[in-house]
Specification:
Blueprint lengths: L8 H12 L13 E5 L2 E3 L3 E2 L4 E5 L7 E3 L5 E2 L17 E4 L4
Parallel strand pairs: 1-4, 2-5, 3-6, 4-7
């Protein structure tokens, strides 16, 4: 659980993404799971959402938690081969915030 003034947010989310995200479906069948909960406030960090990762805003409304970084909360497709389609952006979630 993070608050707006917490240090190390980027390190934590990037470590999770290094485990369960990135190109070539890295982490698609991982046994690791991550949940990042954000208290109300504004965050300047970018949050990549890999496989088995949940990002949640803890405000009463999505307007209570805001990400203002260049990318905000985002999901990159793992596969770069378009012949298989976009079938690898599942097993992840993000809700109740503004980005």
């Amino acid at each position: 659980v993070f608050g707006p003034g917490d240090a190390g947010i980027a390190d934590a989310v990037n470590a999770a993404y290094a485990t369960n995200g990135g190109k070539h479906d890295h982490g698609q069948f991982s046994t690791k799971n991550f949940a990042f909960l954000f208290k109300p406030g504004t965050y300047t960090v970018d949050v990549p959402v890999g496989f088995y990762t949940q990002v949640l805003g803890l405000g009463d409304s999505p307007d209570d938690v805001e990400f203002t970084g260049p990318k905000g909360v985002y999901c990159e497709e793992g596969a770069t081969e378009f012949t298989v389609g976009a079938l690898d952006t599942f097993w992840r979630g993000a809700e109740n915030f503004r980005s």
